[in-house]
Amino acid sequence: MKEIGEIKSNIYKIAAVTDRGQRLNKLISPIYKEKANEMDALIDALKDFSFEMSEKLLSGEWELIFSNVELFRSSPFFLAIEKALNDEFKSNLFLNYINCK
Fold it and tell me: Is the pTM of this model over 0.70?
């Protein structure tokens, strides 16, 4: 099992080279799929550790270091398009198309 410091370091590295996950577009390059798989494995490795959780420990300011969904997709407009198309591939094509405009 990897040490938690090594796991966190690798998460930060992938987040940095992928612009916090914003560059993880599998349609553009296979290397991004590899990085996404690496991140999934690192997150799974974190599940082997137990952490103390409390409202006090979780309160405060947080910084997003990685997301596997484009930040603009949190808009209700884009969520509605994704739901209406009901197909991840078509949704990604549409969102990538309008993102290039």
Answer: no
